[in-house]
Specification:
single chain; 733 residues; alpha+beta; six-stranded antiparallel beta sheet; 21% helix; globular; binds ligand MIG
Length: 733
């Protein structure tokens, strides 16, 4: 009966209803889609995750192998997929526990989970119905359970998906290696937009910095102590009684003045906006929300109210295009305060005071614009994503020449198109420090490369030792933010001079490596390949790497090995530790360079406001055959000029010839001209041997005598100035 009603309803509002008998076909090379018999598209489509129309190009080959089998279990729809023995599973989104997901079960149901204390940590803020399978030979497949309803993914010998909703389509893709499968996922669900460069800088947050003089003081401390930082975060106490889009007049009387002061000392400011709207006639957001019919309804059709920070709240129904437009307008106006970015929180949505922690399953969302009306059970998991989508669009409309930056707590597969994410309310403990690595990796493997945990931990107090190790590692998360919810202070200087110095060194490493980081963000935005990667990406067929979760890779070229890692498995080959500083402490992670890699490094700066690529060090670790390659992406750091060619992608090809190292530098893409002074940092087993920065265009560099490792200064050979607009790869000395 319900189904008939929905069918009739969808007919009335003009949807085409497709009823499929069991259908499956290839829609792209080695990409297949399977529809259940009697598939009712209105129940699960359009897909908020998959952006492409899936049109048949051919039948599924008979030897395809990875076949979803539809069934039922206790009245629920199930899909079972048998896998080759020895298959390793990854991804499934924001998960706690081990990197390898074999023998785990996760419920996809966005949940506020303070301290990850409930549900064994298997229900967190985001949902990614995506499983990555890596076969023993290193070839890969990926599965999308393409619907948003609450569902469970159980990974044992087989994959079993159990849904609390109607039957859904399943997408199966196959590729030869992990990078190719991530590209294929990116092709289906989109990729991150290239963030503004400042968002890749280090960030400082606290629940909450207030009043505004405190915010200024914290930012000034970073500058005085010369600890690099780009962003300071305003948590809920900047608001008037936690009413979104308001300011507390006592604590934050002049937000425009505050933000312009912060900008003047090269900081950006980010403000939190929660989903709940305080039920309070006279509060204009609430009044207009009522007038515009913008709030989620109960099953009986009245407005639903639930308790959050401000007291009883109504919840914008982001499934409605009109509501998203309204929210966008509110957010756009708010940006006049000069905020640089927005932080969306509590958007699971979190509701206090009862056992389910959110609104009832049978609440109603109105939909519209192609999205069918539906229950909360259907739309819960995309609530946060739809909120961050309108936030992203608002920022773009407010400042069309700037790249938006949004951080969201709740999210869904595909949500990386609108916002970065952090892993919510973790704990200041060793366990959470260690767990953050597989969590971040699996989020990256789920299409969300721009993520990281609260450095130092959110719940509880970090000891100096724990914080020192966490900041040493945290400087290498794609999203690098220190955030803390306790009264105790967690700024880098809060733990005494030793840890302050450790923090300065660690964060300084991130800033020196920004040219490499930025190049990785560019790659992620173009392809979907994550920034932080598991070690098995280096050698997918090496089974010993499959569950290494202490160390990780940044891009293809660096391994980050925490100081506390015990017996980590590293890929074979002549990977070399890079000694990045003259000094040493007991906290910094070991940074290891791939044989055959050239990576770009810049000078130490305190804020990305001072970023430039005028002086670039190329760290080189030649292969056995004496060659090495690398790239460097560069653009304005903000804005959209890069979309019309205003960027430069350079490739570096190094080769050893006798006792000399030759580096050919080629502009491979883009029209941006950059004047650069390069120097080489030749990585040996014990040290990095630097040439001087180039002052002319000589192509050959005299390489340090390899055998003795002694330095020979040869300005005549070592120097060259690249005017990078030209391709001079043919030039030879
Ligand atoms: O229920 O805004 O995860 O980062 O500091 C707490 C206050 C609400 C939860 C977020 C946390 C943030 C906090 N918020």
């Amino acid at each position: 009966m319900k189904k008939i009603l929905l069918t009739l309803f969808s007919f009335l509002i003009g949807f085409t209803l497709h009823v499929y008998s069991q259908t499956s076909f290839l829609f792209d090379e080695n990409m297949a889609v399977f529809y259940p018999a009697g598939f009712d598209s209105v129940q699960t489509l359009p897909s908020p995750a998959v952006e492409r129309d899936l049109l048949p190009i051919s039948d599924i080959p008979v030897d395809w192998g990875i076949i979803p089998v539809y069934g039922t279990d206790s009245g629920k729809v199930t899909v079972t997929i048998n896998c080759e023995e020895g298959t390793d599973f990854y991804a499934t989104g924001e998960v706690t526990g081990h990197l390898r997901r074999n023998n785990t079960e996760i419920t996809l149901w966005n949940t506020d989970n303070y301290g990850y204390r409930n549900y064994g940590g298997t229900r967190l803020y985001q949902s990614h119905p995506w499983i990555l399978g890596v076969k023993p030979d290193g070839t890969c497949f990926g599965i999308i359970a393409d619907h948003t309803w609450r569902q469970k993914i159980k990974l044992s010998d087989a994959i079993k998906i159990t849904s609390d909703g109607p039957s859904f389509r399943v997408i199966v893709i196959k590729r030869n290696n992990p990078k190719e499968i991530m590209k294929a996922l990116g092709n289906l669900i989109g990729t991150i937009n290239l963030p503004p460069l400042w968002a890749i800088g280090h960030q400082q947050s606290r629940y909450s910095y207030y009043p505004d003089s405190k915010v200024k003081e914290i930012a000034e401390q970073f500058r005085q102590r010369e600890i690099p930082c780009d962003v300071i975060w305003m948590d809920i106490d900047y608001m008037d009684g936690v009413r979104p889009f308001t300011f507390n007049k006592t604590y934050f009387p002049d937000p425009v003045g505050l933000n312009s002061y912060l900008n003047s000392i090269k900081f950006k400011s980010i403000y939190i906006i929660d989903a709940g709207t305080k039920q309070e006639p006279g509060y204009s957001v609430y009044d207009r929300g009522i007038a515009g019919n913008h709030f989620v309804k109960t099953d009986s059709g009245s407005i639903y109210y639930g308790e959050v920070w401000p007291g009883l709240c109504a919840f914008p129904d982001y499934t409605r295009p009109e509501t998203r437009a309204w929210w966008k307008g509110l957010q756009r106006n708010f940006m006049q305060c000069g905020a640089d970015g927005i932080w969306n929180d509590m958007n699971e949505p979190a509701v206090f005071g009862d056992t389910i922690g959110t609104m009832p399953d049978n609440n109603r969302h109105a939909g519209g614009g192609g999205l069918p009306a539906g229950s909360h059970l259907r739309y819960h998991n995309v609530y946060g994503m739809l909120m961050s989508m309108s936030t992203y669009e608002a920022l773009l409309e407010a400042n069309p020449d700037k790249r938006p930056f949004v951080l969201t707590r709740a999210g869904f597969l595909g949500g990386q198109r609108y916002a970065a994410t952090w892993t919510g309310d973790n704990v200041s403990s060793w366990e959470h420090l260690k767990m953050s690595i597989p969590m971040s990796i699996n989020l990256g493997l789920s299409g969300q490369p721009f993520n990281g945990p609260d450095i130092g931990g959110y719940v509880g107090n970090a000891t100096p030792e724990l914080f020192g190790h966490w900041i040493a590692l945290g400087a290498f998360y794609p999203f690098s933010r220190n955030h803390n919810g306790e009264p105790s202070e967690q700024e880098p200087w809060a733990f005494g001079p030793e840890i302050e110095k450790v923090s300065q060194t660690a964060i300084g490493r991130r800033y020196r490596l920004l040219p490499y980081f930025y190049t990785l963000f560019r790659e992620a935005s173009q392809t979907g390949i994550p920034i932080m990667r598991p070690l098995f990406f280096a050698d997918p067929a090496d089974l010993s790497l499959r569950d290494e979760e202490q160390a990780f890779m940044l891009g293809d070229d660096l391994i980050i090995l925490p100081r506390w890692a015990n017996d980590a498995k590293l890929p074979a080959g002549n990977w070399k530790k890079i000694k990045l500083e003259d000094t040493e402490d007991n906290y910094q992670v070991t940074v290891i360079l791939r044989p055959g890699a050239v990576i770009p490094m810049g000078k130490l700066i305190q804020s990305t406001a001072d970023y430039n690529t005028e002086f670039i060090t190329l760290l080189v670790n030649p292969n056995e055959d004496g060659t090495a390659t690398g790239t460097l992406y560069d653009d304005e750091g903000n804005g959209f000029g890069y979309r019309s060619g205003d960027y430069a992608m350079h490739r570096f090809d190094a080769s050893k010839e006798g006792d000399r190292l030759k580096i050919e530098i080629t502009l491979t893409e883009g029209t941006r001209r950059v004047n650069r002074h390069y120097r080489i940092g030749y990585v040996t087993d014990d040290e990095v041997i630097y040439t001087d920065y180039s002052s002319d265009t000589t192509q050959y560099m005299d390489m340090v005598n390899e055998i003795t490792g002694s330095r020979r200064d040869r300005t005549d050979f070592t120097d060259f100035l690249m005017n990078a607009g030209q391709k001079i790869c043919q030039m030879q000395k």
